[in-house]
Amino acid sequence: MRSEPFRFEDEDLFGVEGQFLLDRDGQSYQLSVQLKGEWVNADFDPIPLALSTHLAEQGIVVGQRPLLGADWLVDLRRLGFGQSRSVSMLDMKPEGDLVVMIWIRGRQQVDWSLPLAGDTLQKLKVAAQACTEPEPTADPNAPPGPNTTP
Prior knowledge:
Blueprint: E1 16-25, E2 28-40, E3 46-48, E4 59-62, E5 68-69, E6 72-74, E7 78-80, H1 83-91, E8 98-102, E9 111-112, H2 120-130
């Protein structure tokens, strides 16, 4: 499940876009933030996005709560959160706006997303719960499998 794309505050990041991804496996969830695009340096050169490996300074802030830091990073473009942290973030009561905090390699400071609705993650969870895959139907003409009896 994917959220609507979002942007970042700094005008140098006009070409950077983020999106929440929520993977669901039964009752378990894995939340991540996928980023793509280019940012512009002081010489107006476009630079492909690559995140810093310092995860302690990157993650999600909801209202006045402290930073909920990312647990992992994939391909320098995807920040992820462990299953227990994902579940707690999806279940927390929205209090104020939500922002994504990232640190891009080559930049001197952390960057913030434009404010998102505080219930963004909860809406994503509801949408994921609504998406159920149909059960596969058995072919009555198929031969028995290795774990079945004829």
